[in-house]
Write a structure and sequence with these properties.
Helix content: 25-40%
Strand order of the largest sheet: 5-6-1-7-8
Mean pLDDT: 92
Shape: globular
Length: about 425
DNA sequence: TCTGGGGTCCTAGGACCC
DNA sequence: TCTGGGGTCCTAGGACCC
């Protein structure tokens, strides 16, 4: 178990990615939208200052956006994923103890570091900024939860210049942090805690162990211990394969026909299968979720249908075949549909598939070679270079992404042009 | 009119077994 | 009328994260 952790957090990550290729956006209000251009999921500091909230539907702040000339982007995950990988590569150059926690965050273990931690963190910050182009904040503390809290201070308080070590001043610092901002405390728990008179992170660190276990379960007790400086959540460096892989998107417009739903289901199944193969897995269970367009502002009706797959597989055509069968079971003509999703579960490593006497294994060597070749081509020339005909060509159901920037770093066709005079 | 898309873990309770 | 005790497995629901 490490005795000291750092959390590296990219500031306003998606906005920072957009700014790399459009430097004129520096110091201007910028927001990035969720899939389907619905909500605001990233904001520059200038946009935050205007009062634009995280997760806010864009139609609610149209006036604000027009009045202050806020720059608006659709989300561009090819770009963000690639920039993220570059940031993580830089971090890996500083220590082998890296846990990639999310697209824009990583925990580092500091035990092998002999230098002054703050100095070391400042150098990381400078290097990421210079080599990749995104600003980061770094928090240091004796547990992951405290490192998280420290990173928050590093980001919010300009006096620290993006780097903060909470180790010697944890109690005082925690007193300034609301309990709702503690890592592991969500909306529900913060309401419960506030009602019980526990309002700051320090209050939470002072609660009785038995009380914490009773009201917040074992995970909450761990959070409490971590706030006291006892590390309970270790650095997870080993790659852990997903137990379930989900792919679903809202449609760009209402969808009524089974044909279009089938296309979308095929597209999402094929994406999920790609992820499945990337982790070397085969799925033994598949589920299709179909969501209606909410009627009169009511609760949207959801239809779910799933099945066990006779012999676990990662072969896209077979998975699409099942997805279509499941979809047909729950589809009714009439209602407008908003979204379809495909989940692959009961995932086993491909080498350990339990064969079945009555269902000959569908994925021969030839089929898997085909899948691998397609995956390689798509990785090299850009996603969707080769796709399954069942996923359609026109794809009128596809999500809205009206303001997407180019895939500057992952597509040969979209490399930025530089003109020199 | 317009509100994202993934994931994980924990607990309680029921079914079933000896 | 009385009605054990202990274990496993599975599922649904609820909490959290980004």
């Amino acid at each position: 178990m490490h005795r000291l952790f750092a959390l590296v957090d990219c500031n306003n990550f998606y906005v920072s990615c957009e700014r790399i290729f459009s430097p004129s956006l520096e110091n201007k209000p910028v927001v990035v939208l969720s899939n389907n251009d619905g909500c605001i999921i990233a904001r520059s500091n200038e946009a935050k200052a205007l009062g634009i909230k995280m997760g806010q539907p864009i139609f609610q702040c149209k006036d604000l956006i027009a009045r202050h000339r806020v720059h608006v982007f659709s989300s561009n995950y090819s770009l963000y994923g690639d920039i993220s990988r570059r940031v993580m590569d830089v971090l890996a150059g500083f220590t082998p103890d890296v846990e990639v926690y999310s697209i824009d965050e990583a925990f580092l273990g500091l035990d092998g570091i002999v230098r002054d931690p703050l100095d070391w963190a400042r150098e990381i910050r400078r290097t990421v900024r210079k080599w990749v182009g995104v600003p980061v904040s770094i928090g240091i503390g004796p547990s992951k939860t405290l490192a998280k809290a420290a990173a928050r201070v590093a980001k919010k308080d300009p006096r620290h210049d993006g780097v903060f070590d909470i180790t010697s001043c944890a109690r005082d610092t925690l007193a300034e942090i609301g309990v709702e901002d503690v890592w592991g405390i969500g909306r529900r728990y913060s309401r419960l805690l506030t009602r019980a008179g526990i309002c700051s992170a320090r209050d939470l660190s002072d609660v009785d162990d038995a009380w914490a276990k009773k009201h917040l379960t074992i995970t909450g007790l761990r959070t409490v211990m971590e706030l006291r400086g006892t590390s309970c959540i270790s650095l997870e460096q080993v790659f852990s394969p997903k137990k379930a892989i989900m792919c679903s998107r809202s449609f760009g417009r209402k969808v009524y026909s089974l044909e279009e739903l089938n296309e979308a289901a095929a597209a999402y199944t094929s994406r999920a299968a790609e992820k499945l193969r990337a982790q070397g897995g085969a799925a033994g269970f598949i589920e299709v979720v179909l969501i209606e367009f909410p009627f009169n502002g009511g609760f949207p009706k959801t239809h779910i249908s799933g099945m066990n797959i006779p012999v676990a597989t990662a072969y896209t055509p077979e998975l699409i075949h099942y997805a279509h069968a499941l979809l047909e079971k729950i589809y009714r003509s009439g209602p407008a549909y908003r979204k379809v999703g495909v989940m692959l579960a009961s995932i086993v490593p491909r080498g350990q598939v339990q064969t079945n006497l009555f269902f000959p294994c569908p994925e021969g060597e030839k089929e898997m070679r085909l899948m691998e070749t397609i995956d390689r081509i798509n990785a090299r020339f850009g996603a969707g270079t080769i796709s399954h005909a069942a996923a359609g060509f026109e794809r009128p159901w596809q999500m809205r992404q009206a303001r997407k920037s180019a895939r500057f770093t992952t597509s040969w066709e979209e490399i930025p042009l530089v003109r020199a005079r």
